[in-house]
Amino acid sequence: MKAVYFAWVRERIGKADEEIDPPAEVVTVKDLISWLSAQGETYAYAFERASVIRAAIDRVHVKPEAKISGAREIAFFPPMTGG
Amino acid sequence: MRVVSVQREDFDASAQARALTQGRSDVGAVVTFVGLCRDEGGKLAALELEHYPGMAEAEIHRVVEEAETRWPLAGLVAIHRFGAIRPGEQIVMVATASSHRAAAFAAAEFLMDYLKTRAPFWKRVVLKDGTSEGWVEAKDVDEAATERWE
Hints:
In chain A, 27% of the residues lie in helices and 23% in strands. By secondary structure, chain A is of the alpha+beta class.
């Protein structure tokens, strides 16, 4: 699946998007954040405050408990500040 | 009539609001809100607005559909810009048209509360001395404003 990152999550990781292939035991968005956090220092920094990170699957907001199976694109970003 | 746009260019808020009542006589109320970039006491050079292309449009359409189910609206406009926006420039507009003012006011406020907290946009502050103050932090007061509709 494709992972996409925005705002300071993107800056901390150092890339806007990438293909990821998490193992089968990564079931939920929360699991994926834990898995990504272990992929290196930049990821650990980006996800250090996991509770503030928001996620979207295929461009729809989802909760941390949401299952990632079947997702084509999963996005991680800080709380939004539009308007 | 429904106008949803995510764009880099500026928009003509008056023309957008006028179009809501063009050729019809059943509309009794139009509420227009425009959000502008402040200079923050002269320090701010620009806001850089990042967005999630595709999701920003989709999310605004979802919020608009929700507004249309909650209030009897004759039409609405929701436009949000991205890219570099300087002090005094327009960032966002919503306009709502209805037979009576209560629905138009409520729907406009609902749309703005949701645009601020649910539409995937992020503001970064660029200061006049060329430095960046970093990303604008989400405010609890904005989240609370959205939650009161739920």
